[in-house]
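Write out this protein's structure.
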Amino acid sequence: MSTTREIFYRVGGAVVLLAVAVLIVVWATRSRFSRRSANPAFRGIPIPRNAGLPSEPHERAPEGTFTREERKFLLELARKTIREVVTSGNMPEIDESGLSSSSSMTEPKGCFVTLKKSGELRGCIGHIFPREPLYRAVMDNARNAALEDPRFHPVEPQELALLEIEVSVLTVPQPLDFESPDDLLNKLRPEVDGVVLQIGRRQATYLPQVWEQLPDKESFLAHLSAKARLPASAWKQPGTAILTYQVEAFKESEM
């Protein structure tokens, strides 16, 4: 074999071996990446948006913060308050010393008290943000739901036995970041999120329970805009701020 031919074969063999080595390295790297992706220890690594994977389902807010006894106490407190303010015009007196050991009753919380009569809304007033101890917030909002809701005339004594009371305790509202009206619609969670709409000085909120009557997201926001005395499409305009919160709600018929 000539020297030239020998060099040719040697170089060709080296090229083949190099190609095989490269393929082995590529296969090993891809195999290691696959194992890494499947390993729970690496699941916290961000996945690009265009990876084609379905988004994680939204988690619902934890339920059951209050015991049955605490729920019953708050509902009875709301009813006692309504009965007193409707029949005598006075707020009831309670022994606050007995509440000092219950942080769930004395911690400031936002809350709403909702009144229904024959299944229809009869009053609903509340605090969106924590302002006072929960037990006091329930008393104040029970009074206001019975007497001060501008949509209804004050509750009368003969209506007391026909009312059902619901208490909703709110988490602290948090701003919701969104880039467009469509992005906002995508991020809202029906039956999970209570929504606060803020445009300029106008503000309105719907509790998560309202999704039962307005399950369509656009309709929900249109009605919320109208509640804030704004055009139905106002939620689409620049400068709109949205906050969301969750509630733990309980009513007398459940006790």
